[in-house]
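User: Please fill in residues for this 510-position structure.
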């Protein structure tokens, strides 16, 4: 690790240290003032921030700080909505001076409400006004602001340039947060994840300095951004590679096994896995349901003329009760089908109370009949709650993840084959999460984990699907593997004051 190469210093960054000295001298005679009071005095006394900040006594405070994940309700010290880099730097100066932690907020769809700090007392810097976009025709690189959301950004690129970048299946999710946390989508098997496609990022560090990070420039910072970016700075903009569809039409398909017993359903899943690992092209995407009947759906992005014989080869392995459907649409229409209302103007995933668990299996240690049976038998087939509903799936990964090296980025996800998600949601009409809800959901998922351990399969996770109940020993290994110690060392260099240590799964200095 070496010195950072600075790409730009906003006016606020140039005066950050002098500002800290100034504010400290002004407040030194008021030792009784607590951190939040110091922060409020600084923010409200700033000529460039006073109109951009909201405090808890504002009439709109509840709306400004309402979490998406309703099981959590952190209380920020204040929320700033900056418009410029100078304003971001000024807000950081106030927080550093007051000894208050800082939480950058993109879309706010964290399962632990981490964008709002995850715990009480953080200064939230809401980046929603940083949505500028630009496209370089010569390189095919697309740059978007750190406050961008998936739907509007993907729509702008398609409507103006006819190009696509991999993204998650939710229109109003923050694009920065989902991209640096993996962001698996329907085109990720052949294009890679959003994280794979990142070319560079523009980051403001704790001291207001702005740097560009990529695989060649400030590579250590780029390394940690890919999996833990919010622990190291504020993402001002991101630049990604893009893709122009080779074929105009995309095929959508559904598969339903019908009313089969668990052994037949599990064996079908084994046959699907074998086919996927030996015959399926990377352009074949599949999501197999965990909550519900034995069924799944997916997309084919290859030559439409190749789909029928390819699909027939899969279906012939399945029970004779299997029913399938297929349809074709142009690429953009299918994008809006896979991610409903991608080109809309409102969130299709409203706030809710939930608890999520997720595991990733690799191609060298995929599902076995025993592990798949343990998964289905103790989760969806045993689920018997009326105060919660169940949700879950298995996303077929594989594809170009074969080319990923765990040591190339903070999140360890080389050779991933399945992304498995199991989730309990508070039933409609109820307002209070059940006292035993977490333990109930964990108990259902535990036999699957125990079977994996019995088979010698390490438990691995997925950053975008953080399990909020894991200990540091657990989440650090599941998400980052052998990269964790390196990440802590980089943290010491990039954020020595721990300004961005806001929640339980933040990266802290070694």
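Assistant: Residues filled in for all 510 positions:
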């Amino acid at each position: 690790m070496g010195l950072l190469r600075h790409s730009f210093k906003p006016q606020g960054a140039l005066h950050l240290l002098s500002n800290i000295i100034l504010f400290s001298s002004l407040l030194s005679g008021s030792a009784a003032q607590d951190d939040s009071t110091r922060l409020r005095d600084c923010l409200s006394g700033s000529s460039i921030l006073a109109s951009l900040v909201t405090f808890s006594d504002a009439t709109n405070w509840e709306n400004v700080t309402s979490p998406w994940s309703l099981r959590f309700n952190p209380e920020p010290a204040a929320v700033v909505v900056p418009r410029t880099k100078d304003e971001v730097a000024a807000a950081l100066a106030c927080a550093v001076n007051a000894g208050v932690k800082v939480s950058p907020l993109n879309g706010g769809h964290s399962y632990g409400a981490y964008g709002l700090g995850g715990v009480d007392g953080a200064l939230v810097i809401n980046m929603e006004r940083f949505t500028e976009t630009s496209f370089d025709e010569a390189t095919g690189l697309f740059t978007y602001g750190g406050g961008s959301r998936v739907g509007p950004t993907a729509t702008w690129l398609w409507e103006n340039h006819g190009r696509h970048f991999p993204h998650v299946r939710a229109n109003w999710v923050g694009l920065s947060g989902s991209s640096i946390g993996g962001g698996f989508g329907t085109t990720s098997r052949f294009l890679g994840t959003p994280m794979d496609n990142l070319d560079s990022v523009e980051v403001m560090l704790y001291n207001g300095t702005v740097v560009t990070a990529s695989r060649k420039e400030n590579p250590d910072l780029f390394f940690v951004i890919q999996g833990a970016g919010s622990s190291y700075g504020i993402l001002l903009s991101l630049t990604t590679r893009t893709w122009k569809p080779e074929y105009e039409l995309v095929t959508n398909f559904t598969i339903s096994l019908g009313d089969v017993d668990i052994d037949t359903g599990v064996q079908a899943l084994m046959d699907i896995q074998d086919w996927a690992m030996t015959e399926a092209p990377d352009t074949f995407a599949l999501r197999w349901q965990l909550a519900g009947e034995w069924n799944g759906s997916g997309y084919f992005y290859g030559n439409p003329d190749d789909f029928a014989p390819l699909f027939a080869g899969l279906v012939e392995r399945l029970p004779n009760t299997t029913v399938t459907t297929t349809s074709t649409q142009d690429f953009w229409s299918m994008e809006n089908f896979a991610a409903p209302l991608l080109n809309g103007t409102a969130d299709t995933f409203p706030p809710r109370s939930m608890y999520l668990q997720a595991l990733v299996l690799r191609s060298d240690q995929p599902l076995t009949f025993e592990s798949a049976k343990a998964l289905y038998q103790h989760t969806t087939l045993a689920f018997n709650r009326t105060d919660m509903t169940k949700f879950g799936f298995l996303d077929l990964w594989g594809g170009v993840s074969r080319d990923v090296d765990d040591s190339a980025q903070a999140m360890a996800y080389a050779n991933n084959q399945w992304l498995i998600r199991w989730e309990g949601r508070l039933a409609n009409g109820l307002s209070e999460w059940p006292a035993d809800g977490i333990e109930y959901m964990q108990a259902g998922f535990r036999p699957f984990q125990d079977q994996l351990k019995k088979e010698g399969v390490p438990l691995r996770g997925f950053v975008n699907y953080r399990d909020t109940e894991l200990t540091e020993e657990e989440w650090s290994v599941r998400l980052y593997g052998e990269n964790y110690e390196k990440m802590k060392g980089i943290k010491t260099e990039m954020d020595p004051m721990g300004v961005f240590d806001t929640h339980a799964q933040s990266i802290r200095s070694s």
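For context: Residues 249-338 form a domain with the Vanillyl-alcohol Oxidase; Chain A, domain 3 fold (CATH 3.40.462.20).
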